[in-house]
Amino acid sequence: MHFTGKRRTVVLIFAGSLIFSAAVLGTALGLSLATNHNTRNMDELIASRPAIPSQILDINGELITEFFSDEKRDIIPITSLPENQIYALLTREDAPFFQHTGVSVGGFIRAVANNILYVITNKGYFSGFSTLTMQVAGARHADRTDISVSRKLKEIWWAYQLERRYTKQEILEQYLNSVYFGHNTYGVEAASQFFFGHSAVDNSPAEAVMLVIQLAGSGLYSPIIQPEAARARQREILDQMVAAGHVSTDDADRSYEAYWSNYDWSRSATDSPYFDRLANDKAPYFSEYIRTQIDQYLFGQQDIYRDGYVIHTTLNLDFQREADKQVSQGLTLWNRTYRNDRDSKTGYASAELVETIDLLSLVFDLPEIRVAGAKDRREAKEYLENQFTPIMDVLAMTFGLNDLKSLTNISYDKAKFHAQMNNVETALITLDNSTGYILAMIGGSEFNRNNQFNRAMDANVMPGSAFKPLYYSAAISSGQFTPATLINDSPYVFTSPDGTPYIPGNYAGRWSGKVLLRDALARSLNIPALKVLEAIGFDAAIDRSAQLLGITDPQQIGQTFDRVYPLGLGTLSIPPIRLARAYATIANRGLAVEPIAIRYIEDRDGNIIVNPERDLREEQERRDRQILSPQAAYIMTSMLQSTVSSGTLAYARRTVDGFDGMPMAGKTGTTQNWTDAWTMGFSPYYTTAMWIGFDKRGNSLGRFQTGATSTGPVWARYMKNIHEELPRIPFPRPENGIVEVDVDRRTGMLPEKDTPEEFLRREVFIAGTEPRSTSNLARFENERTEEQVIKIAVDSSLTNLNDDNSTSAAFTRDLFDELGLDPLFLDNTGGTGRDSNSGGTGSASSILD
User: What gap in Å lies between CA 523 and CA 640, rounded to an integer?
Assistant: First the structure.
């Protein structure tokens, strides 16, 4: 009986197993048939949706440019690639590639464990287990944007089919020639040419690793977009290759050092579709910036060059065209002024020193310093770089003359270096004060083969005095200073926290004596500015400046702000976009402004797939954006208006005959040796930053080019024109917390009732910081004036006083009577009245003193 029950159990288990096996086999067969059917349907679907370019639209829906659907792809045999390229790929993507048959069981188990841990504990990360073969299969037979079990089953099925049909080398070759490496490059050869300028055949271990880490997508490790992240990840993979025995430690270290010692930090992304659209791009620097930003939002096989996205941006093409026009005219003037200044110096040297230099050249056999013939050599060099080299470059590419191509590349590099040293570069960025919209952007003098670096977003340049308002705002917020605070502008020695003494001067070496804070800022006086910094301290100044600039990382703050007094004169290095953000925040009543370029992205069917602006607004709602109070922001705006009305921007205002009733506030900046010139300014609507200088430090714009005289007039014309159709409104004033008081402009104190009108100023204060004391300067001035009148009258009348019949004597006696003086007091001095120095020991003037 017991045996019978046991046999029945075995039979049931066997029958159940058969049923389960049949179900599994049936499911597998059904899946395989469905996979084939769905794959055919997917191929048909893809074929019916051709690749179309993505469009970049401005804020009004006007087309800026299109990202075309060409692909940069070059095929290279697997046998031509260096081993380090293969090993780098396997180390990063699929170490057991040569052991599995399409699917890695170990990778599958590891992925399942990671994902279960992530779902249950929200720790770790969500991971996949795709092998190289599965990635090839997925690219050909599945929609890799579909994150689902069914898609993964299709990849597994086709991976096994590929492994049965192709060799491992063929699968690797297929993968390396088709995979996307970022920046619109497909395949290892095109990517190598783009990133390194040479064939993948010649890739070093460091270069091979740099390519494979691009497979992470989204520009995460792009050496162009994220060089520091790329550098760290590259080192990590190289170390893994060393540990696996694929490369020696020496080879890895040498290639790593060589890569970064020769790295071009100013480079920007380029590709063939870009150059195809360049001629029609209405804002190339902005478009390039947009393309780098899109990588953050599109994933997997989403492709801006083929999928027909519509990117709605913040740019205003009307503003952009006006910016292009004004900056183009400015560049002509800036370069001419620079060259005239340079030539005047070299002209003097030529006139005074040519014979001496040539004599030294002959006597000491130094032909390289000889001046004779230098002009001819310079003209020949310019012809080679500007005329001959482009012709040779075309011939080299047409006929495949690699040696000639190498020579033209060398010539291009020299031309690029020469331009960096001698061509004035520029940047302009306009922000909407309330939304942070980037409305106009110019990143350089001209966007071309050798000039793609976006200085508006990425150039770290010194702001000079344009930096002062950032920590002035901290002084106003502290209550220690008001626009009427009196400061002495005279020589002064400052001692930095490290004990370093600093003795600054003013522009042109002039001193102003006692000045009010408003006037000190408007006239950009250095000593008062540093006394403000000394009074509030480095902590307060750096904290406020970092907040306004949007720098939050403590390490970056430490690297940006040196705790020495030259910091107060703008010796830090920052991109123009950050300074624009700071000024826009002041204009925005002290609320932090976050620059934004992409509003939202639609797919080809009109569905919004990404909405960066909505995400930004939601984030802003969750945090405190108030950097300085509305009252402090209003005071700072008022003070910066004085720069335009009577300070360093007054000349720029006059060149455009005023702003037609639109209030403007701003500040200029000029760095040591006229290296950089800035104009920063804003209206109630918009903020614009403008900079000029050189890419290579050490050159000078010339003593005639300051922020007031060079960028100032261009900024003024641009700002006046973009505001032409806008209603005239005042800067927003807080409903409370602001008081207006008349002050004596000579002291900053309350005036006496007899103070002349010319010395009165209506000043604004944060409530509670207005002056309480009355100035007695008016009374002192009146008494001094009376004494001076008496003294002058007495001195001028001494010679005529004894002539009773003279008109002068009669006038003098009448004057003395009016002043209440007895003319006979002169007799007591022992003098004759004709010569104050004859006889006695005193004089009328000494008595009056």
Answer: 10
